[in-house]
Task: inverse folding
């Protein structure tokens, strides 16, 4: 829930300082969690309060980094660039699991203290070296789609300075939380991400347990092997994020891409549950494919889509909505990320088939929430193909901007 407030603050404060405070605070409270090992602390409330405080500081991260990266790139290649950039989340998941497993033999406290020290160190690196926008280093902001082309008519030439002055006036005022919810496309994508992250985080938390308790080719894998094998889901997620970003750039259609991936995740989940136990190669293959289709739209929505909506045409050039919009979308998704694993803990005691049915239903609902946006994008494509005045490749705005 802290992410909603973090985005609101992120658009009003210096992102470099805001991100540094979040990283250092996260490092401090993560280390305090680990110090409970040497302090022989067994109080439930100590760990609860420390974990909640760490979560609040962590919530500053995603809205801030998406806002920073979003300011550096225009919309034409934002999907591909941010898809590649977003690979750091999966790499972080894999690295965190490996670091924790290696340090566990020295005492579980080290699994928290070492990451805490590392994030504090890199928080200081961010403070000294992060340029939050092109203007911070004297460069021009990439506004390839939003700025008008060189005017050829006198009327256009007179309008350009007016539009620029209007933008400059709007940039000083941050967009409010309720106002950000009203930006066309924010609510559908936020609700879509609720169910997309429900599926993704259920796999993140429960996949190692599921693998270790499912006979694959008649054999049960050890907990360590199951944990290492489950990282392939994140590897598929890296590929899916890059692929979804690239496709959405080529089609200039974020909603179509995200919805298509969510619908493809349904048969992927079905095949993984039905045939993943037959052999290890089949399990790896279907796990990779499932990770690609589940994490693909998740990555696309939390990066390129959030950045697009944070610079929506209805904002009239106001760039101080990026963090707020990102926080709304990813914050809503995080609620689903909390509910999914919780429901799985209850449902899995009855049947894992019911768990996968729940996940397939969630993927379906996620895609359905984008139906109106998909229809708008399809209609836009049909109109473009019929138009004789220009080709789709020369269009400068995204259909999302016109919803």
Result:
């Amino acid at each position: 829930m802290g992410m909603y407030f973090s985005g609101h603050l992120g658009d009003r404060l210096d992102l470099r300082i805001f991100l540094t405070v979040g990283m250092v605070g996260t490092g401090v409270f993560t280390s305090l969690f680990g110090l409970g090992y040497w302090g022989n602390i067994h109080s439930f409330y100590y760990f609860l309060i420390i974990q909640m405080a760490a979560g609040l500081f962590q919530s500053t991260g995603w809205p801030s980094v998406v806002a920073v990266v979003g300011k550096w790139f225009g919309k034409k290649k934002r999907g591909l660039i941010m898809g590649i950039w977003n690979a750091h989340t999966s790499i972080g998941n894999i690295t965190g699991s490996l670091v924790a497993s290696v340090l566990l033999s020295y005492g579980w406290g080290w699994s928290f203290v070492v990451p805490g020290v590392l994030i504090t160190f890199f928080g200081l690196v961010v403070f000294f070296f992060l340029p939050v926008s092109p203007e911070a280093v004297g460069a021009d902001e990439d506004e390839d789609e939003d700025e008008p082309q060189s005017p050829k008519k006198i009327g256009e030439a007179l309008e350009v300075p007016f539009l620029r002055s209007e933008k400059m006036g709007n940039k000083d005022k941050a967009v409010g939380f309720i106002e950000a919810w009203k930006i066309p496309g924010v609510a559908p994508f936020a609700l879509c991400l609720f169910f997309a992250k429900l599926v993704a985080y259920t796999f993140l938390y429960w996949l190692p347990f599921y693998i270790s308790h499912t006979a694959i080719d008649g054999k049960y894998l050890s907990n360590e092997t199951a944990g290492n094998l489950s990282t392939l889901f994140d590897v598929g997620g890296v590929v899916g994020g890059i692929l979804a970003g690239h496709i959405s750039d080529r089609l200039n259609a974020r909603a179509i891409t995200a919805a298509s991936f969510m619908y493809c995740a349904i048969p992927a989940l079905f095949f993984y549950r039905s045939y993943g136990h037959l052999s290890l190669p089949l399990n790896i293959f279907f796990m990779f494919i499932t990770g690609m289709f589940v994490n693909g739209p998740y990555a696309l929505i939390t990066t390129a889509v959030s950045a697009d909506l944070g610079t929506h045409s209805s904002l009239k050039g106001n760039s101080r909505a990026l963090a707020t919009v990102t926080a709304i979308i990813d914050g809503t998704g995080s609620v689903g990320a909390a509910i999914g694993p919780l429901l799985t803990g209850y449902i899995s005691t009855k049947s894992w088939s019911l768990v996968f049915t729940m996940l397939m239903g969630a993927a379906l609902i996620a895609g359905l929430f984008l139906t109106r946006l998909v229809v708008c994008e399809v209609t836009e494509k049909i109109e473009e193909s019929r138009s004789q005045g220009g080709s789709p490749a020369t269009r400068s705005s995204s259909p999302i901007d016109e919803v």
About this structure: Residues 145-169 have pLDDT under 50 and may be disordered. The chain has one domain: 2-140+167-402. The CA atoms of residues 104 and 351 lie 31 Å apart. The longest helix spans residues 280-310.
